[in-house]
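Dear colleagues,

As part of the handover before I leave the project, I'm documenting each prediction I ran so the next person doesn't have to rerun anything. This entry is a single chain, and its sequence is reproduced below.
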Amino acid sequence: MIPKGTLDSVIQEQEARISNMIQKALLKAKYNINHKKNMLLIPQDREVAALLNLPRHIQLKDDDTKSLPASCTDHPVYNVMVSRMIEGLNKIIENYKSICEKSKDKDEHETPDVELDKSRLEELSAQLLEIILAWGRASNTGPSLDKKSTQLMKTLTRP
């Protein structure tokens, strides 16, 4: 549910020392982005997705949403949604950053130990699972993650 590349990008946006602290702390907390708590196999074929009441993984070239570019490898709108949700990835990493900044270690060559709770990332995965399953139940056309993310983001940004 949380894309590996999106998590990596948000962590890498931090200054190097903070990024290293977050990575070390998540390893120490035994967070695994490839754990079943963050996994859902989603079909790429529109008809299969419709039969299973799931959205499609990526937009492909089905041209069902002219405003979205076809993709064979990524879901950029979904990635942005995951980052910008109210309790999304940006907020979680921002919180991790503030915890790391409080750690005062005099040795600049060592990466200080910081305690981070992996449960916030796991809660985000659970929330994303519910959203994705609801998208599939609400549509029998097999829309892509990007199409549904675009629709959701429009409703969240209306005045």
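Residues 84 and 90 are 6 Å apart (CA to CA). The chain has seven helices and no strands.

All the best with the project,
I.
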